[in-house]
Specification:
The complex is a heterodimer.
Chain A lengths: L1 E7 L1 H9 L1 H6 L5 E4 L5 H12 L4 E4 L12 H10 L6 E7 L5 H10 L6 E4 L5 H8 L7 E5 L5 H5 L5 E5 L14 E5 L1 H4 L7 E4 L18 E8 L5 E8 L9 H17 L9 H12 L5 H20 L1
Parallel strand pairs in A: 1-2, 1-9, 2-3, 3-4, 4-5, 5-6, 6-7, 7-9
Antiparallel strand pairs in A: 8-11, 10-11
Helix pairs in contact in A: 1-3, 1-11, 5-6, 9-10, 10-11
Chain B lengths: L2 H12 L2 H9 L4 H9 L5 H5 L2 H12 L7 H16 L6 E8 L2 E8 L3 E7 L8 H9 L4 E6 L4 H7 L5 E7 L2 E6 L10 H7 L2 H10 L9 H12 L4 H15 L6 H5 L6 H6 L4 H11 L3 H4 L5
Parallel strand pairs in B: 3-4, 4-5
Antiparallel strand pairs in B: 1-2, 2-3, 5-6
The chains are: A alpha/beta, B alpha/beta.
Chain lengths: ~300, ~300
């Protein structure tokens, strides 16, 4: 099944909250890496996930953002609020600088939360698998493809395994092509011997805090291309004006115009998701809701597209 | 790099926005501890003092001729002109303010607008011509603030209405050539591109222009069309009036008063959340030997 990986900034958390029902009905499980100091937004999101009987994995040792040095507050939140909620489990990032002993210690500490390992730069695949011993087959593993080759993943044969591939190519907004391939993992993950697949949605693995003013505004929308064996592609609708970092609202208007034209042409292959409806509505009103909302809509569209495809 | 060069580079980076922000937002800065270690300034006296005092010591080393970086120049300008000649209540400071295709190091608004382009002994003059061309479109007066060896070159490179200043000692700014006020020569469209929409609307409002009722994706372009028709001198004078209000730093007065001398300029150039002000003051009072443990 689908495991979208979110860096839990404000609009990522809102996207999960607003997609909670779709996620739950499709048996999807978001992986959330909390990056903001305050955990209120995370708590609200997890409450909603539990209310609709959904699932979520919360990273207890983030590598990015305000909790990168110490994830204690996240562990505390899980222990205090979510021990009796089976939908919420812990995620343990396995990073380059960790030893198998570190990883095992973290695993034992969060055992009550049925942890999943997210392999992201860790180099001791064999040693750690041996260290897990008899417990190995009961553990769950997600592999970020850029860090874990087939040989690496083989050490965890027989475990529950998920492959995460970043389909989003990071560039300056102005440099995106109008259309490109995103990923085919939603079709091919069984061929890779995997139980599930994941991605970094339409945001990408690169983490940046805030970021400067945008010279161009882009709306990223994914779609399934039936003519290409159902591979997933992505449209980048980019504003025409891109010489100054001013007027994001006007630039959004330009990007939205391109999107609506494509959609109305009837040849876009875009699914008619709640996000597409909302974008059309914004087009009718000529309203720019802010870049955060635009990103949120792009993520919601992506989730609903995968949900519709797999239904 | 030689030891001296490594030291100087570390001292210079102590006054970077990154260090300043970490101290204010997190109450600790591993980078600060590492840079102070690399600065070659550490001794028992410094270790016994506070973090705040160590910044003053670092600044004393930085301001010696030869190594002065942009921060020393900014500091001299803000202390002499903004805090000396004017005050935070009557004048405004703009840093990194967009002017056409450039960004102005420092501009001060009082009765008129004055932009200061800093060319320290570490800079080259290669971008100067283009910078002056862009600044003319937004500001009434332009001053190039240079290290002494640059004076003749800059006088020759720039038109007679561009002012030239020189950092004589670390804290004294001498005027070599007065700038001429050319408020009549600004470009309304370039000014518009530097302003927030609400600021541009205030200016149009003063001229009696009716603002159309449009959705936000159409608004800025429509306002720009109207703004382009305003007379340059009016645009300039209203820009000064409006920005002095919307970008006022008067609220920072008390906070600035409590900071060590060497960090006042950093505080004027970096926007912090109100709740981080007190945290910064507390962090600066930590003993330096204790702060050195952040490095680990």
């Amino acid at each position: 099944m689908y495991y979208p990986y979110f860096r839990g900034k404000q609009f990522e958390l809102i996207a999960i909250r607003e997609s909670a029902v779709v996620l739950a009905q499709s048996n999807f499980c978001p992986i959330i890496e909390p990056v903001k100091e305050t955990l209120n937004g995370l708590h609200k999101t997890l409450t909603e996930v539990c209310r609709v009987h959904g699932k979520a994995i919360v990273i207890v040792n983030p590598v990015h953002g305000d909790h990168a040095e110490d994830g204690k507050e996240i562990t505390d939140l899980l222990t205090e609020e979510y021990l009796d909620k089976p939908g919420v489990s812990a995620g343990i990032l396995l990073r380059a600088n960790m030893t198998p002993a570190d990883a095992l210690a973290c695993y034992q500490k969060h055992l009550a939360h049925k942890p999943m390992f997210i392999h992201m730069g860790f180099t001791e695949a064999r040693a750690f698998a041996e260290l897990l011993g008899d417990n190995l087959s009961k553990t769950r593993h997600a592999f970020v493809e850029a860090h874990c080759g087939k040989l690496y993943r083989r050490h965890y044969d027989g475990c529950f395994r998920v492959l995460i591939r970043d389909g989003f190519r990071k560039r300056k907004n102005a440099d995106h092509p109008p259309l490109e391939e995103f990923s085919d993992l939603h079709v091919t993950y069984p061929d890779e011997g995997m139980n599930g697949f994941g991605d970094f949605l339409t945001v990408g693995d690169d983490f940046s805090e805030g970021g400067g003013p945008a010279y161009a505004v882009a709306i990223h929308l994914t779609f399934i291309e039936p003519k290409k064996d159902d591979a997933m592609y992505i449209y980048h609708f980019v504003s025409t004006t891109r010489d100054t970092p001013t007027d994001p609202a006007g630039k959004f208007g330009q990007a939205l115009e391109k999107l609506v034209q494509k959609y109305n042409s009837g040849t876009s292959n875009l699914y008619d998701t709640s996000a597409v409806k909302e974008l059309q509505d914004l087009h009718d009103k000529g309203h720019f809701p802010g870049l955060g909302v635009v990103k949120k809509l792009s993520m919601k569209h992506h989730i609903e597209t995968i949900a519709t495809y797999l239904r | 790099m030689t030891t001296a060069a490594t030291n100087l580079s570390a001292i210079s980076r102590l006054f970077s926005t990154t260090v300043f922000r970490e101290l204010a937002e997190k109450g600790r800065s591993p980078l600060f501890a590492r840079l102070l270690e690399d600065s070659g300034l550490m001794d028992t006296q410094l270790a016994a003092g506070t973090v705040g005092a160590s910044f003053d010591s670092a600044f004393a080393a930085l301001r010696k001729a030869g190594g002065r970086d942009e921060y020393v120049y900014k500091s001299a300008l803000t202390h002499n002109i903004l805090l000396g000649r004017h005050s935070l209540c009557t004048a405004s400071l703009l840093t990194e303010f967009r002017a056409g295709l450039c960004k102005a190091d420092l501009a001060i608004l009082n009765g008129t607008s004055t932009v200061y382009e800093i060319k320290s002994e570490r800079d080259t003059l290669s971008r100067l011509e283009n910078q002056v061309k862009n600044y003319r479109k937004v500001f009434a007066k332009i001053y190039i603030v240079v290290a002494e060896p640059f004076i003749d070159q800059v006088l020759e490179l720039t038109d007679a209405d561009v002012g030239v200043m020189c950092l004589a000692r670390w804290n004294r700014v001498n005027t070599v050539r007065e700038a001429v006020d050319r408020a009549d020569a600004v470009c309304p469209i370039t000014v518009f591109d530097s302003l927030r929409l609400a600021e541009a609307i205030m200016i149009l409002d003063r001229f009696g222009v009716v603002i159309p009722d449009l959705p936000n994706t159409k608004m800025r372009e429509a306002v720009k069309q109207k703004f382009a028709l305003l007379p340059p001198k009016f645009v300039h004078n209203e820009m000064v009036r409006v920005l002095k209000r919307t970008r006022s730093l008067a609220a920072l007065s008390d906070f600035i008063d409590q900071l060590p001398h060497s960090l006042k300029t950093a505080a004027l150039c970096t926007t912090l959340r109100l709740k981080d002000h007190q945290r910064l003051l507390t962090t600066l009072s930590i003993p330096t030997h204790q702060a050195m443990e952040w490095a680990i």
